[in-house]
Amino acid sequence: MNPPVRVLYLAGSGRSGSTLVTTVLGQYAGVFAAGELRYLWQRGEVENRPCGCGLPLRDCPLWGEVRRDLPTDRAAAIAAGLRGRLRMRGLPALLRRHRRGRRPVPAHPDDAALADLYTAVARHTGARVVVDSSKLPPYGALVGALPGIELRVLHLVRDPRATAFSWRRRRGLDGDTDPELMSRPPVWKAALLWLVWNTVTVRLWGDRAPTGYLRVRYEDLTADPEPTLRRILGFAGVDADGGPFTGPATVRLAPTHSVAGNPSRHRTGPVPVAADVQWRRDLSRWSYALVTVLTAAGLRRFGYPWRRGGPAAAGGSAGSGRSAAGRSVAVGQEEG
Questions:
Q1: Could you give the CA distance from residue 278 to residue 267 in angstroms, rounded to a whole number?
Q2: What does the alpha-carbon distance between residue 108 and residue 93 come to, in Å, rounded to a whole number?
Q3: What is d(CA 108, CA 16) in angstroms, rounded to the nearest whole number?
Q4: Annotated region Disordered: where (predicted)?
Q5: Residue 204 falls inside a structural domain
Q6: Is residue 235 part of a domain?
Q7: Which long-range contacts (CB under 8 A, 24 or more apart) does 174-183 make?
Q8: What is the DSSP string of 27-53?
Q9: Tens digit of each residue's pLDDT (9 = 90 or more) over 230-241
Q10: Is residue 155 part of a domain?
Q11: 330 in a domain, yes or no?
C-alpha cells in the first residue's frame, strides 16, 4: 500500500500571505508548491490559465504528466460540482456534521478524481509534502476526508483592516495585463468573509494543534521571516536546510508550478519579505471603524489592536508555543 500524501493546507481568508508562503515553501527540497488546487479544474483545465512557470497549464510538461492520470474530459463538471458543494450557505450544516463526528462535506462521486489529483501530483513531482493554498475551509475539510490524504493545516491570519484594503486594489487575475480582475468585494463583505473563514478554520482544526494545526500571523512572519518559515517547515515535517533565504528578509525565488493564486506567484529572483503599511495611512476612518466593529471577536482572538497603530497582543500563534510578541507590522507583498 502506498503511503498517504501529506498535504499542507493553507487555510483562512484571502489576502493573508498564502501565495508568498506557498512560493517560498516550494523552494525547499521535497516540497511542491501546488497553488490553489481547487481551481485546477476551472482555471487550469477549462480556461488554460498560466501555470506558475508562465506556460499555459495544458502546455506545462509537469502538469501534462499529472493530467494523464485525471479525468480531464470532466473538468468543467467537477468544477461546477465543487462550486455547488462549497457554498457559504452550507456552512451551518457543515459545522453540525463536524461537531457530530461525521464527514463535514458529504461524499460525492467526484471525490475519486480529487483523490487522484493529489496522488498524481505527489507521484510526478516526487514531493513528500504538497502545499495547497486553496484557503477555503470547506474545501480543506473535503480534502482531509479523501482516502490517502494526511492533512496538516497552516492557518494564516492577517489584520482584517489590511486584508479589506488589499481586496479593494485593482489587480489582474494573472498580472497587470490581464483584463479579468481579481475579486474586489466592498470592505464590509471583506470583513465578514475574514471573520467567517478564520472562525470556521479554528472550529474545524483548532483542537488538532500542535501536530495537525498551526496558526501563524503574517505580521509575525514578515517581522521574523526565516525563523517563522523554519517553524512552518518543522510542522510540515520538512528539512529546513538549503532554503531560498539570501538574507534575514530576502528570498531568491525560482519558478514554481502553482495552479492559481495571487499574480505575485510569477515573481522570480530576489524578493524582499517586506512590510507594507499603506493601509494604515490610506484606509479611510469609516472603513477602518466598520471593519473593526464587524471583526471585533476575531481581533480579540488573534491578538490585533482596535486602535489604528495600537500594539498587537502577544500569543497570536497557535500550536507553536511562541510568537513574535509585541511586533505587529502590516503585511507587504499583497499576497493571496
A1: 21
A2: 16
A3: 30
A4: 310-336
A5: yes
A6: yes
A7: 174/49, 174/50, 174/263, 174/266, 175/263, 175/266, 176/263, 178/263, 182/262, 183/14
A8: TSTTEEEEE-GGGIIIIIIIT-PBPTT
A9: 999 999 999 999
A10: yes
A11: no
